[in-house]
C-alpha cells in the first residue's frame, strides 16, 4: 500500500512538473503569437486609418471645383498616401505602382496578341493636372474618382494575418531605400518638387510603426537609436529642393540606418526565408555586397559561382565560338573600354555597343529591351547573322571536343556542355561585372575622403535639379526601378540623327517598335547605366554624341523637344533645365567619378 502510494505520489509530482512545463511552453508560444498578432493588428489599424483618410480627401477633391480647394485636398490626400507608402509599396506593389505612376502613356506588351494601351492615372497625374496653368476640372474629378476607387478596392482586401517580423523589417528597409533612391530625387513629385517634405512624412509613419514594435526590442538602447536616427532624418528633410545635400543624406542617414537595421535583425533573432534584391546583410546601397545576384540570375542552375564566371570569361573571349572564328563577345565589348568598343556603331551593327558593367542589374536587355535575361540575350547574339551566325548546339559540340572546356563543364555542371550551361557560364561572367569600386562608391561608403566639392555638387545636381536620377536610378544609375528592381524602364528622348542643336531630325531607328509593332513604342529605348561612362564614348543608342558635354547640353535643352524634334510621346520633360555652365561641368565631373578604378575580377 505504502509503495503503491509513493509511486502514485511520484507520478502526480512529475505530471505537475512536466505538465506545467508543457503548459508554460505552450502558453509562451501562444503569448508570442498573440504579441505578433497584436503588433500587426496595431500596424493594420494605422494603415486602415490612413487609407480612410486618403479616400476621404480624394472624395472631397472629386467634389471640389475651385482651384484652391482642388490643391488643398490634393495635398491632404497626398500626405495620407505617403503615410501609406511604406506598407502599400511593400505589400501591394502593383497597386502602389498604379497609384504613383508617372503621367505618361502606359504600354503593356505581353505578346503580339495582348498589347494594352492605358491612360495614366493616380497622384502624379493629379499633381500635373491640378497645378497646371489651366485646370480642366472634369478631367481632374475623373482621375480623382479612379484613384479613389482603386484605394477602396485596396481597403476591402487588406490582409495582415500571416505577416511575421521579417516582413516588417523588409518593409522598413524598403522604405528607407526608396526615400534615398527615388524619394529625395523628385521622381514622383515632378511639378511641386515636394519630395523632401514627402520623405519626412514617410519617416514619421516609420517612427509610428517602430513604436508599435518597441516591446520586440530586447536592447532598448537600439530602439532609442532608431528614434534618434529617424528624428535626425526628419530634421534635415526640409528646405530648398535644389539645395538639398543628397550626398550627405545618404552617407550620414541612409547608410547608418541600414546598420541599425542589421542590428535589429540580430536583436529580434529574425531568420529570413530568402533574400530579396538587396541582400539581408547589406549595409550600403553602393557596394558589391549590396545585391543578391541570385535575384537577377537564372534560377535553373543556381546562384553565381566564381569558377563558373571564370569559365564564362574564357568563352566570352573565344572567337572560335562564332561561325567565322573571327568574332567573340569581346569584339564589341572590350574590357579596356568598360566593355564597349569605342565605335559610333559596332562593326556590322545598327547601334552603339553598350557597356556590360552592371548589365546584370536589369530586367531588360539590348537597347530595345527585347530580351528578358542575360541568357536570352546570349542566345540572340549567337543566332544573329551579323554576329556569331551559328547556334548553341554547334558551340556545344565544339566545347565538348575541346578537352580544356569539356573538363571544366563536367566539373562545374556535372555534365557536358549544353545550351543551358553554356549561356549560364557566360552570363555568370557578365553578372560578375558589378564591382562598385569607383571613386564615388569608395567615398560615399567612407572608405576614403577624396571626393571634391565639384564632384559632390555634380552628384547633388544629378539627384536633384538636373533630374537625371528620375530615369537613371541609383545605385546602378540605370533604368531599373528601386527598391524592388523588378522593372527596367524604356524612354523616348527624341534622340537626333545628328548632333544638331536646332532644326534637328529624330534618329530613324524605331527602337522598341520593331518588337511588337506598337505605334506608341516608336523611338523608345532602354535607359542604360551611366557607370563607367567616361570610357564608353560615343553616346546614345546611335552614338550621335561624341562627348559628355554634348549629352548634358541635349538634356539641358529638354531633349528632342528643345532642338526642334516634335514627338508627343517624348517621356523626357520638354522644359529646359536651366543649368549653368558650372553646373553642367560638375555633372560631367561627377559622372567621371563613376569609373571603376580597379581591374575587375569575377565577384561571388
| Count of DSSP strands | 4
Distance between the termini: 73 Å
CATH class of the largest domain, anyone?
Answer: Mainly Alpha
Q: Can you say what the CATH homologous superfamily of the largest domain is? A: Cytochrome c-like domain
User: Rg, please?
Assistant: 27 Å
Task: Tell me the series of helices and strands, N- to C-terminal.
Answer: HHHEEHHHHHHHHHHHHHHEHEHH
- What shape does the CA trace take? globular
User: Helicity, in percent?
Assistant: 40-55%
Report the total helices: 20
Give the structural class: mainly alpha
Which percent band covers the strand fraction? under 5%
In what order do the strands lie side by side in the largest sheet? 1-2
CATH fold-level name of the largest domain: Cytochrome Bc1 Complex, Chain D, domain 2
Runs in which pLDDT lies below 50 for 5 or more consecutive residues are 1-32, 600-604
How many domains is the backbone divided into? 4
Looking at the overall shape, the CATH architecture of the largest domain is Orthogonal Bundle
Query: Biggest sheet: strands, sense, closure?
Result: 2 strands, antiparallel
Question: Whole-number average pLDDT?
Answer: 93
Amino acid at each position: 500500500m505504502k509503495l503503491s502510494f509513493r509511486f502514485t505520489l511520484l507520478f502526480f509530482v512529475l505530471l505537475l512538473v512536466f505538465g506545467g512545463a508543457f503548459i508554460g511552453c505552450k502558453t509562451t508560444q501562444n503569448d508570442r503569437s498573440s504579441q505578433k498578432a497584436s503588433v500587426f493588428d496595431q500596424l493594420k489599424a494605422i494603415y486602415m486609418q490612413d487609407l480612410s483618410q486618403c479616400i476621404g480627401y480624394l472624395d472631397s477633391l472629386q467634389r471640389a471645383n475651385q482651384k484652391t480647394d482642388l490643391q488643398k485636398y490634393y495635398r491632404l490626400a497626398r500626405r495620407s498616401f505617403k503615410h501609406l507608402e511604406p506598407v502599400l509599396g511593400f505589400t501591394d506593389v502593383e497597386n502602389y505602382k498604379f497609384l504613383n505612376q508617372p503621367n505618361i502613356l502606359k504600354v503593356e506588351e505581353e505578346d503580339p496578341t495582348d498589347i494594352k494601351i492605358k491612360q495614366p492615372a493616380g497622384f502624379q497625374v493629379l499633381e500635373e493636372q491640378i497645378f497646371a496653368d489651366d485646370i480642366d476640372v472634369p478631367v481632374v474629378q475623373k482621375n480623382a474618382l479612379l484613384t479613389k476607387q482603386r484605394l477602396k478596392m485596396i481597403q476591402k482586401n487588406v490582409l495582415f494575418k500571416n505577416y511575421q517580423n521579417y516582413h516588417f523589417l523588409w518593409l522598413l528597409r524598403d522604405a528607407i531605400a526608396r526615400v534615398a533612391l527615388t524619394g529625395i530625387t523628385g521622381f514622383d513629385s515632378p511639378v511641386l518638387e515636394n519630395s523632401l517634405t514627402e520623405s519626412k512624412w514617410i519617416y514619421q509613419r516609420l517612427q509610428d510603426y517602430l513604436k508599435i514594435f518597441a516591446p520586440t526590442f530586447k536592447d532598448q538602447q537600439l530602439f532609442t537609436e532608431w528614434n534618434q536616427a529617424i528624428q535626425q532624418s526628419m530634421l534635415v528633410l526640409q528646405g530648398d529642393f535644389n539645395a538639398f545635400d543628397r550626398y550627405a543624406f545618404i552617407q550620414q542617414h541612409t547608410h547608418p540606418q541600414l546598420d541599425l537595421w542589421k542590428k535589429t535583425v540580430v536583436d529580434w533573432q529574425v531568420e529570413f526565408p530568402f533574400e530579396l534584391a538587396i541582400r539581408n546583410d547589406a549595409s550600403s546601397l553602393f557596394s558589391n555586397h549590396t545585391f543578391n545576384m541570385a535575384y537577377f540570375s537564372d534560377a535553373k542552375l543556381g546562384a553565381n559561382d566564381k569558377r563558373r564566371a571564370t569559365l564564362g570569361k574564357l568563352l566570352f573571349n573565344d572567337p572560335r565560338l562564332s561561325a567565322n572564328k573571327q568574332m567573340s563577345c569581346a569584339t564589341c565589348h572590350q574590357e579596356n573600354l568598360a566593355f564597349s568598343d569605342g565605335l559610333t556603331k559596332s562593326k556590322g551593327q545598327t547601334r552603339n555597343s553598350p557597356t556590360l558593367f552592371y548589365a546584370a542589374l536589369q530586367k531588360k536587355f539590348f537597347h530595345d529591351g527585347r530580351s528578358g535575361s542575360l541568357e536570352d540575350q546570349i542566345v540572340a547574339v549567337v543566332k544573329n547573322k551579323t554576329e556569331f551566325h551559328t547556334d548553341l548546339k554547334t558551340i556545344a559540340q565544339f566545347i565538348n571536343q575541346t578537352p580544356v572546356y569539356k573538363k571544366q563543364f563536367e566539373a562545374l555542371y556535372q555534365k557536358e556542355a549544353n545550351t543551358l550551361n553554356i549561356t549560364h557560364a557566360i552570363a555568370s561572367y557578365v553578372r560578375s561585372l558589378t564591382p562598385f569600386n569607383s571613386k564615388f562608391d569608395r567615398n560615399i561608403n567612407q572608405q576614403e575622403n577624396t571626393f571634391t566639392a565639384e564632384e559632390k555638387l555634380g552628384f547633388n545636381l544629378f539627384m536633384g535639379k538636373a533630374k537625371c536620377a528620375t530615369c537613371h536610378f541609383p545605385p546602378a544609375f540605370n533604368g531599373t526601378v528601386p527598391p524592388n528592381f523588378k522593372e527596367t524602364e524604356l524612354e523616348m528622348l527624341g534622340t537626333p540623327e545628328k548632333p544638331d542643336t536646332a532644326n534637328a531630325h529624330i534618329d530613324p531607328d524605331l527602337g522598341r517598335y520593331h518588337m511588337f509593332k506598337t505605334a506608341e513604342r516608336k523611338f523608345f529605348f532602354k535607359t542604360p547605366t551611366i557607370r563607367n561612362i567616361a570610357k564608353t564614348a560615343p553616346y546614345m543608342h546611335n552614338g550621335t554624341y561624341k562627348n559628355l558635354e554634348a549629352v548634358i547640353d541635349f538634356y539641358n535643352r529638354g531633349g528632342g523637344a528643345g532642338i526642334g524634334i516634335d514627338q508627343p510621346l517624348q517621356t523626357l520633360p520638354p522644359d529646359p533645365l536651366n543649368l549653368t555652365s558650372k553646373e553642367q561641368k560638375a555633372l560631367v565631373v561627377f559622372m567621371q567619378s563613376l569609373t571603376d578604378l580597379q581591374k575587375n575580377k569575377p565577384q561571388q
